[in-house]
User: Which sequence fits this backbone?
């Protein structure tokens, strides 16, 4: 098969650049789709990051309603195998209980993605229902493109691995506690979790009923992420809460440097803190930002971290138990079995199914005090920087973080997970934005994302700072290095 361009050339294009070539008539959407499909075929045997390629959409990019005149007109895109639905396409959540599930309609967000010109050519991998830290289950084991012995983390595992490996410039991701930012951070891509009130969860949920889960993307350039937010944001009719838009599109805002920012470096969050190497990498990035004219100092938010993580755990367990209950009802089952769900997810169902209103009210009260505490912190600082995780990325098969774990206590399992995912979940609890930038590395050679967080609705400032950094390093994220598994190799 003759490809539209060589792999080195392909990997140098971001989504905006590919769309521009389509507009100029230099390539067609079908040629881009064919190239992406070839890239998946080339890398997926090693990475197991893609569940399915839609061959009919590769052959005919207009088949499912992609808008060729959108900002990303014709750019191939993978949808994580949970979240927005695709009419008539399989959506199986990495779970036996969902095998053969074909939604009857597109989600509202699916329509926004297609209107932006993205051509959804397949499904990327996820842990069962997106619950655990790595996409390792009976169907696939998604590996890190930098070293296949290690996890790509989760839950947006497959998308991050494919974008990190240069196969696609942008792909779908979701984040209920770090699931965009963490896999981006360990696969060397950019991952933005937006504030509440940006991407719609219609028709099944809203930002108020879901509370913590956010849609989004992972990409390799700041301008792709900015353009995605600009063109995919917005509420559907009947949203429970207002949806907001900035005064200026992010695609324009990022062309200017921010003013002098007050930036906090932080890693000691209650019981959680980073190893010395992570702290040194964070300090090094702090020096880079000082060189860009910002004020940088060490600080810790005055938050009751134990209470906050306990409330987050209650939210996850009670929310997810209801999701499982809905699918059991759909199948006419009274309870899940080990041939349908992984052990920790069964324990979540058992523990959370009868969560009382009193327990949820106590959880909401902690959400409130935690959000107020971060709000007060952001009166003194514009941005807080942390490592993306508090522990190094684990090897494949590290079962303590998997929902296949035999841990008898679901609360102990979550407490262990928070020691690893320490710095990302509270942004979901508070509804504030966070972005992972590929600025550092771990001792075993994998990327280490540096996370920036800001106050609610200051998403644009995060992107503006990210763009300033991108210009300062001449676009060479990951210090200009490529992973061992890369489409150009």
Assistant:
């Amino acid at each position: 098969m003759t490809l539209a361009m060589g792999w080195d050339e392909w990997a140098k294009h971001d989504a905006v650049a590919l769309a521009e070539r389509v507009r100029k008539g230099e390539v067609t959407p079908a040629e881009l789709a064919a190239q992406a499909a070839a890239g998946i075929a080339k890398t997926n045997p090693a990475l197991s990051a893609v569940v399915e390629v839609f061959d009919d959409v590769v052959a005919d990019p207009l088949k499912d309603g992609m808008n060729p005149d959108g900002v990303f007109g014709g750019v191939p895109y993978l949808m994580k195998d949970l979240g927005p639905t695709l009419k008539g396409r399989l959506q199986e959540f990495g779970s036996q209980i969902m095998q053969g599930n074909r939604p009857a309609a597109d989600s509202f967000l699916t329509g926004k993605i297609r209107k932006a010109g993205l051509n959804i050519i397949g499904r990327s991998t996820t842990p069962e229902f997106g619950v655990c830290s790595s996409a390792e289950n009976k169907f696939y084991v998604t590996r890190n493109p930098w070293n296949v012995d290690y996890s790509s983390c989760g839950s947006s595992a497959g998308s991050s691995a494919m974008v990190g490996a240069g196969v696609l410039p942008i792909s779908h991701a979701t984040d209920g506690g770090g699931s965009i930012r963490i896999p981006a951070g360990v696969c060397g891509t950019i991952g933005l979790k937006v504030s509440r009130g940006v991407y719609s969860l219609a028709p099944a949920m809203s930002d108020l009923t879901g509370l913590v889960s956010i849609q989004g993307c992972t990409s390799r350039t700041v301008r792709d992420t900015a353009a995605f937010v600009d063109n995919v944001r917005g509420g559907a009719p009947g949203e429970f809460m207002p949806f907001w838009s900035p005064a200026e599109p992010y695609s324009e805002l990022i062309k200017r440097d921010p003013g002098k920012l007050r930036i906090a470096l932080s890693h000691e969050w209650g019981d959680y803190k980073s190893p010395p190497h992570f702290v040194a990498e964070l300090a090094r990035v702090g020096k880079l930002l000082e060189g860009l004219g910002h004020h940088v100092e060490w600080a810790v938010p005055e938050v009751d971290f134990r209470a906050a993580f306990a409330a987050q755990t209650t939210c996850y367990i009670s929310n997810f138990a209801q999701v499982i209950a809905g699918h059991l009802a759909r199948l006419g089952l009274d309870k899940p079995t080990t041939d349908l769900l992984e052990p920790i997810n069964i324990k979540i169902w058992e523990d959370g199914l009868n969560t009382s209103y009193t327990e949820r009210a106590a959880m909401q009260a902690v959400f409130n005090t935690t959000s107020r505490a971060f709000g007060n912190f952001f009166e003194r600082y514009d941005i807080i920087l942390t490592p993306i995780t508090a522990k190094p990325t684990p090897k494949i098969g590290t079962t303590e973080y998997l929902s296949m774990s035999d841990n008898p206590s679901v609360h102990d399992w979550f407490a262990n997970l928070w020691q690893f995912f320490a710095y990302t979940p509270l942004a979901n609890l508070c509804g504030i934005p966070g972005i992972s930038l590929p600025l550092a590395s771990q001792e075993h050679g994998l990327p280490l994302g540096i996370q920036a967080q800001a106050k609610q609705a200051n998403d644009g400032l995060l992107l503006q700072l990210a763009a300033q950094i991108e210009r300062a390093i001449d676009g060479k994220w990951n210090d200009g290095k490529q992973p061992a598994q890369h489409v150009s190799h």
